[in-house]
Amino acid sequence: MADLDYFKSVNDKYGHDVGDLVLKQTATILSKSVRKSDLVVRFGGEEFLILLVDIRPGEAEKIAEKLRARIEAHQFKINGEFIRKTISIGVAEFPVDGKAIWEVIKYADVALYKAKELGRNKVVRFKPEFWTEEEY
User: Fold this and answer.
1) Given 46, 47, 65, 81, which residue is catalytic?
2) Fewer CB atoms inside 10 Å of the end CB: C or N, the chain?
3) 46 catalytic, yes or no?
């Protein structure tokens, strides 16, 4: 699960049309950075769900770091000027972290919020101690 850091500031400063351009460019970068068999989906406001199909255990974290670095390095062209954004990413693996796909998506989201809590522009791998709730 990935979320653009401080995205609201883009909408506030430049307007929602520019925010939409940043989201589209982000989606393009993410999609071009994974295989055709993988899936990149906008998942709410400025969040993206990236489903990596049939990869080795531990590989998702490396791919997430590659995605994070590409967004950080990208210059978003906005009305003749360039801005930079960063992205925070939470990683969880199926079936290592959970027995149901919806559970693993929730855990990736929990790891994403841990990345934000730790300062943003980070990749954080889910750990069981991040989830202390009884229910989803």
Assistant:
1) 46
2) C
3) yes
